[in-house]
Design brief:
It is built from one helix and five strands. The chain is mainly β. The termini are far apart.
């Protein structure tokens, strides 16, 4: 199934939760936020949030600056 991840097409081989996708992509759960349709998905929902075809997700990684 195809999803849109950070404005690029990404193929997911099977139905997954958001938490499984983030683990596959080697994202730490600390310092990131995930949004769908400009709405942040709370971290406590990641393990039950199922991906669907053509879903558009944006992963935002916190950075430090000075």
């Amino acid at each position: 199934m195809e999803i849109i991840l950070n404005q690029q097409s990404y193929q997911v081989k099977q139905a997954k939760t958001l938490a499984e996708l983030l683990e596959e992509l080697e994202y730490s759960s600390k310092g990131i936020a995930v949004a769908m349709n400009q709405e942040v998905i709370p971290q406590q929902k990641w393990s039950s949030f199922l991906l669907t075809p053509k879903m558009s997700l944006l992963i935002i990684k916190a950075t430090q600056g000075g």
